[in-house]
Design a protein that fits this description.
Blueprint lengths: L2 H65 L2 H5 L2 H11 L6 E7 L5 E4 L15 H9 L3 E7 L6 E10 L5 E10 H7 L9 E6 L5 E5 L2 H4 L6 H7 L4 E8 L6 E8 L8 E7 H4 L1 H10 L1 H37 L14 H51 L3 H22 L2 E3 L2 E5 H16 L6 E5 L3 E2 L1 H21 L7 E8 L2 E8 L12 H12 L3 E7 L2 E9 L10
Parallel strand pairs: 13-15
Antiparallel strand pairs: 1-2, 1-5, 3-4, 4-5, 6-7, 6-10, 8-9, 9-10, 11-12, 12-14, 15-16, 16-18, 17-18
Helix pairs in contact: 1-10, 10-11, 11-12, 12-13, 12-14, 13-14, 14-15
């Protein structure tokens, strides 16, 4: 926790008694208001439920009457269509009336000419439910295929004169029309009414019906709401708009099972006048609190936080490799003494690091000189030996020593760490190898990109480059060979490619020491070596991660 926050916490502790007394004085008023609000919204929910039931009762009477008309029972579809077309305009809010056969094919419908091809309703919930229960059912939310609007269906089974089920009769009710019946000016973002079907789909919501109709209540919220029964009230944050409301509800068991009616008023709106009274009562105290916290903030920022951050920033800069980072905090107080102590430590640490750097550079220079002397000794011994195989082996040893010496020569520091530009190292190793083994240096083509690596990884890459170059020259024509070396970064990978024009050996490397060494070094780098023939050239490609792989610590 920051120093400034600690000061605020201390100030807040002193304010707790004051706030506690004010809260206790308001408690009884809020409790009484909450009881009144809960009773009001529960009463409004019961009214909405009763009005919705009257609407559904009318639709129920209509479809049950149609189902008992002889023309519908006998399947006289032209007469059925004429009857439904005549009845529909006398029932506001009903967009369509229809009768089906047992498979769900619509045989007659209102406002449709005889013989019209109509879509099946066999996949609709209200059709399956009516056949299953053989009673009046409410199908819940649907989007009308013919009406192209938000609707709900009510249905009842259709029976023939023998009493056998021969389909259903259903009515399509416009949810937009229902929403219009509830479009009152009293509804607002704070005061809403919602009707939800048994599956948790919104049938009607005011205000904003167009935005919410047909959308599901989130699963978590609906799983809680679907457990409610009868009438009552609760308080919760609306999953639809995030407003906390006190909600009165009616969970219908019959005659409309699964329908959930709710009327909610936002807690902020319900208690607005009490909030205003409370604010007026604590206005004077609030001004004092703001002044106290403002003074504490200014004091903490100017006298505590600023010097502390300056010292902390200097420490982070020093830790990040800026050896010249020092704290500028003056004075003889605690922060000034801390800054002075930090600067003394930084001076000593910088001196020791620079001494270490000088020692390491001198050591690297001595190692490089020793390796060069060793290489010269090997070359002198090579000239004194007449056996061609021994001369070749000594030449290989000299090349490897030369590659390591070149790595030490190029060792430098970047941001406090020892690194080697492996691109420069490969270029220099390739150049020296070509000069010592080729008759004409122009027959060696080198193209590299810069990439800094830790010394151990760079030396491995340099040794591999040396081995591949010597093999390319050896199997590509000896002193007359034409060799190309390419090194570049490809995303997170570094790729070294060595190719020679004349191919005498293609495929996997042999079992010699050089080949085994290349394989082992590539494994150490976390990479792979691939050898193939491409366009008449032998190509050997080393691919390894540009960054050293992270080794997970043992648990």
């Amino acid at each position: 926790m920051s120093i400034r926050r600690r000061l605020f916490v201390i100030g807040g502790i002193f304010l707790l008694p004051v706030l506690g007394i004010g809260g206790w004085n308001e408690y009884t008023d809020y409790a009484q208001r909450e009881r009144h609000v809960r009773e009001t919204v529960a009463k409004e929910a019961r009214y909405v439920g009763a009005e919705f039931e009257r609407l559904l009762d009318g639709a129920r009477s209509l479809v049950e009457t149609i189902a008992h008309v002889p023309a519908v029972q006998l399947g006289d579809w032209p007469a059925c269509g004429q009857l439904l077309t005549t009845l529909r305009p006398f029932n506001p809010g009903i967009l369509a009336l229809a009768a089906t056969d047992p498979a769900g094919t619509v045989m007659c419908a209102s406002d449709q000419p005889p013989g019209a091809s109509l879509p099946t309703v066999g996949d609709r919930h209200h059709f399956r439910l009516a056949l299953q229960q053989e009673s009046f059912v409410i199908g819940g939310y649907a989007y009308g295929r013919q009406t192209a609007s938000h609707v709900m269906h009510v249905a009842v089974v259709r029976r023939d004169l023998a009493g056998a089920v021969s389909g259903i009769v259903f009515a399509t009710i416009s949810l937009d029309w229902i929403a219009g019946r509830y479009a009152r000016t009293s509804w607002s973002a704070d005061n809403v009414v919602t009707v939800v079907d048994a599956a948790g789909m919104i049938l009607m919501r005011q205000p904003g019906h167009d935005r919410f109709v047909g959308k599901p209540i989130p699963v978590g919220a609906w799983s809680r709401l679907s457990q409610l029964a009868g009438t009552g009230s609760f308080e919760d944050v609306s999953p639809l708009d995030g407003v906390r409301r006190i909600v009165g509800y009616v969970a219908q068991a019959s005659p409309s099972p699964g329908l959930f009616m709710a009327v909610g008023i936002s807690r902020q709106s319900a208690f607005a006048d009490l909030h205003n009274a409370t604010l007026r009562g604590i206005l004077a105290s609030g001004i004092g609190i703001l002044a106290a916290f403002g003074f504490a903030w200014f004091t903490a920022r100017s006298l505590i936080t600023r010097p502390f951050r300056q010292i902390l920033g200097s420490a982070k800069a020093l830790a990040g490799g800026r050896l010249d980072a020092r704290s500028p905090v003056p004075g003889s107080g605690e922060f000034g003494q801390l800054a002075e102590a930090f600067n003394v430590v930084a001076d000593r640490l910088t001196s020791e690091i620079r001494g270490k750097d000088m020692l390491l550079r001198e050591l690297s220079h001595r190692v490089m000189n020793s390796l060069q002397m060793l290489n010269s000794t090997v070359l002198l011994q090579q000239r004194a030996i007449k056996d061609e195989r021994t001369r070749e082996l000594l030449g290989q040893i000299g090349g490897r020593v030369m590659a390591i010496a070149e790595a030490y020569r190029q060792l430098h520091r970047v941001e406090g760490e020892e690194v080697i530009d492996v691109g420069d190292l490969i270029a220099e190793v390739a150049k020296q190898t070509c000069q010592s083994l080729l008759a004409d240096g122009s027959m060696c083509h080198i193209s590299v990109q810069p990439l800094t690596l830790a010394p151990d990884r760079a030396i491995r890459a340099g040794l591999i480059a040396n081995e591949l170059m010597m093999n390319a020259i050896k199997y590509g024509g000896g002193p007359r060979a034409v060799v190309r070396v390419d090194f570049a970064s490809e995303g997170e990978w570094a790729v070294l490619s060595v190719r020679n024009r004349k191919v005498e050996q293609v495929g996997q490397a042999g079992g010699g020491f050089g080949s085994r060494m290349v394989s082992l070094l590539a494994t150490d780098l976390g990479g792979t070596v691939e050898m193939l023939e491409e366009d008449g050239e032998a190509v050997v490609t080393l691919r390894f991660p540009a960054q050293a792989p992270t080794i997970a610590a043992a648990p």
